[in-house]
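[agent] plan:
  1. take the single chain provided in the ticket
  2. run structure prediction with default settings
  3. attach C-alpha cells to the ticket
  4. add a short note for the reviewer (M.T.)
[agent] executing step 1
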Amino acid sequence: MKDPLLRVENLQTSFELHAGTLNAVDGVSFQANKGEIIGLIGESGSGKSVTALSIMRLVPLPGKILGGHVYFEGIDLLRNSDDQMRKIRGSKIAMSFQDPMTYLNPVMTVGDQIAESIIINQGLDKTKARQRAIEVMETVKIPMSSERVNDYPHQFSGGMRQRVLLAIAISCHPKLLIADEPTTALDIITQAEIIALLKELNTHQGITTLIISHNLGVIAKLAHTVVIMYLGMIMEIGTVEDVFKRSRHPYTKGLLETVPRLGLETLPTIKGEIPNPINRPSGCPFNPRCPYAQGKCQATKPPMLEIEKSHYVACFFPIMT
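[agent] step 2 finished; step 3 output follows
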C-alpha cells in the first residue's frame, strides 16, 4: 500500500490558561490517503479546529504543540522551520476557514485577495495572477467571475463568500485542502451547493480533503472516512458506512441518535453535559455520560483498537450489534 499523503501521530496541543491547562488535542492519530475525503466530527470544543491548526502550525497563543508528528508526503511538518512551513502553506496545504468575513479583507476586492495568494505562492505577475483568480472563481462556480472579480466581500452572499475562501485555498493547486465548517450558517440549499462543490474538487482535481464539521449530514454526504472526536481525543475511526451504520462507540451512537428524523416527537439527547475540558475526567473522557461505563473506564484511558478491518474504537466495552 502506498504511504498516506497525511499521517498524524499522537498529536498533542494544549493551552495554558489562568484556570489551568486545557489539553485541546490529546494524542490524536489518523491518516488521509491521496484523493480521500476525511470527515472530522465532534461537538464544539472537541478539538477539531485545533487539530487542523496544529497540522498547519498556526495554533494561536497561548496554545502550544507539545508533541507528536504530522507527516505530509513523508516529511514531519512539526520539525520544519518556519520558512519551510510558509512555503508549504497555500502551495501544498491550504485551509478554508469557517467565518469568511473574519478572513476576507473588507477593503480589497476578492480578485486582488485571490491574486495575492497566487503571487506569493507561485510568483506569477499581476496580470497572470488576475487571470488565474478569474479561473478559480469559475471553478468554484461564482457567476460572472470576470466581472465579480472586482467586487468586495460585502457584495457577496454568505455562500458566495465561502466560495471565495475556497477559491483562495485551491488557487495554487494544493494537494491537501482543510475545510473548517464550510457549511456553517448557510441555508440548506447553499449547503448542498457547497457539498457538491467540494465533491467536485475532490473528484475532478484529486484534492485530498479534510472536512471539519459538527454536522453529521454533511459528513455522511462527503466523507470516505470518518473520525469522531470528543474532548480532544478520538473515539472512533472508520469508513462512513461503518461509523454511520455500525457505530461501535457509545458516544458515536449517542451522536447519531440525536439527529432529527421525521416522526420523532421528542429528540433524544446524550445524558449529562460535556465536562470542563480543563478538569477532564480521568480514564475515558466520555465515562461520566456513558451508559456502559464501568470502573475500568474511570481509571484507565482506553487504547484505540481495530475491532474490524479499518474500523477502530477507543472503548473497553464497544457496542457489538
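[agent] step 4 note for reviewer: The chain has one domain: 6-92+174-313.
[agent] ticket updated
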